[in-house]
Every structure is written in C-alpha cells, then in structure tokens.
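Reopening closed ticket. The problem is back. First fold of the pair:
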Amino acid sequence: MTYEAFLNRLEGVRSRGPGKASALCPAHQDRNPSLSVAEGRRGILLRCFAECDKPAIVAAMGLKMADLFFDAPTSREQRPILKPKMIDLIALAFRFELAALDRRLRAERIFSSARKVTPDQLSDDDLDHALGLIERAHKDITKAELLEGVADHLRMKEFLERAHEQQRRIA
C-alpha cells in the first residue's frame, strides 16, 4: 500500500512535512490527532501517542500489518476509497479578489505616474515604453473585472449550495 493511499483511509490528516503526517487514530475515540504517520524506506511507520498498538490501529482500518509495506500486494477490497476533496469556494473567491486587487493597484500606479508626465518630456523610446505600460494597465483593469466576476460567481454558488442544503434539511 502506498503512503498516500494509507492517508486517504484516515480522518483529520494534517501534513507535518514531506512524508510525515498526523491524523485521528482509528483505534480509539480521538478528538485531537494523536496518530503519527511517516513514510519509511520500505513501508509506513505508525505511532499513536495515546499508546494504541499498531495491530489495533491497522485492524480498525480494515487492514493487515502486511499492508504497511510498500511491496505488499493489494486486493480489490483493500484498494483505497478516494474521498473527493471539498473546495472552499469562499477561500477561492478571496484568492480571485486578491489577484484582481493586485492588478487594479498596479494599474493605478501606472495611471498615476502617467498623469505626472507630459509627452514632450520623453524621448520617442521612452514614450513608446510609457504607452506600452499604459496599455498593460488597461489590460490589467479588464482582467481585474474578470477576476472579480469569477469571485462573485463563486460566492453566489456557495450561497446557493448552502440554501439548497438548508432546504433539504427542512424537507
């Protein structure tokens, strides 16, 4: 079994660096991650800080101790059941808004600088460069509007999903 497949079978997984993670221990009622999982050279290393033994942990997951080794054969019923990752639409919308803000601020700095300069103060090469920057600033404004539209769409989608979920609960 692979390290990733093993982690997919656990709840509350938190990465602790490359090849290291913590998770809720399946062998006891765990509220805070007490199971340490690490990727060894030949297999998966486990340690429960609540002192559950490894066979109990593995049995609670419906596995055998041999499954902890990377070269162990995998039967059909032991293949990992991948859980779909839930996308946080609000966090994603926030990222789009930050990207839009970045573009708007960059464009505003260019426009502000351009207002202070008169074309007769610049050489032809400098004027071409300045006009190129102004063109880029206009494109940044257009892209910012697009990014803000995507952020609005994501927020609306999250709102509608929550409203639909509440209606299902009521019904």
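Second fold of the pair, where the issue appears:
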Amino acid sequence: MAPKRNKETKGNQDRKEKATVGISIRRFLITYLALMIVFFFIAWFKPIHKIIDVNDLYTQSVVVATSKILALLGLPSTSQGSIIALPGLSLDVKFGCNGLEAVMIYSIAVLAYPAHWKKKIVGIVAGFFLLQTANILRIVLLVYSGIHLKNLFEYIHIYIAQGIMIVLALILFFIYLDHATSPTTAHN
C-alpha cells in the first residue's frame, strides 16, 4: 500500500506544479502586456510627449554616439536631430531603428518576471548597455552597407537589421532568466 500512496502524493505534487506554472505564465503575460501599455502610453501620450519626448531624446543620443563612432572609424559624418549625414548618404534614425523598442521589450520582460529587485535592476542596466552597444554597431554596419552595398541596403535594413535587435532582446532575456533564477550567495 505504501508505494500506491507515494504515487498518489507524487501525482498531486505534479498537478500542483503544473497549475503553478500555468498561473505564473499567465501572470507574467498579463503583467508584461500591462507594462507594455503603460510604457507606450508614457512614450507616446501627447500631454507627456509635450513635456518630455523620450523617443526624441533617446534617438538624438544614439545618433550623436553613432556619429562620433563613425568619425573614429574615419567616416566623416554629422548629426542633427535624428539624421546622420555622410557624403552621399543620410540615415534618418526613427523609433524601431534607435533601439528603444528592443530596450522596452527586454526591460518590460525583466520587470514582469518574478525576481528580486536587485536582479531586475542589474538585468535592466546590463541589458540596456548591451542592446545599445549592439544597436550602435548595427547602425554603423548599416552605414557601411549603405556605402558599399547600396543595392542591398533596404533589404539589409528592413529584413535583417531590424529583426536582429528583437532577437537579441529575446536572447538577453533568456540569459537574464538564468541570472534571475540562480541562487543568491552571500559575499564573505
């Protein structure tokens, strides 16, 4: 009789774990969607947008940083607003190209996942810097493709470069999940 009882107990535990996982996934998705709505509302709601244009400030900082890196690489460029201008090529960096979308997708996923706040902060800060480094590198590579592969520029920009940032945000979130679920050790 004892083995049967153990099987019943194990079966009950398995059902409870599956129910908990289902609730956790549902909670994560609801939290993620709610936070996404709030973040997009803050970024695009006209009265807030008139006070502080997060997208514009973000875009300008990316454009200035990219322009400086291009100059270091020997490509003379200027920046004004969302435009990076080079001889024979101008890029207008918009939402989706500035990396803000990928940062929002990643950061909201980190916030929605149930973890300690210290881990969330470390995850968001590290993810932000990794995504922005990758984004600036992506824009630099787009400049090179615009100069050397003019016929393929649109294809590279639309079908490859934009998708890379979303995929990178997802990969970073999976890496964050490993960090968030690892036990915290005390430093002696």
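Update: turned out to be a display glitch only; the data is intact. The CA atoms of residues 9 and 25 lie 24 Å apart. The mean pLDDT is 84. Please close again.
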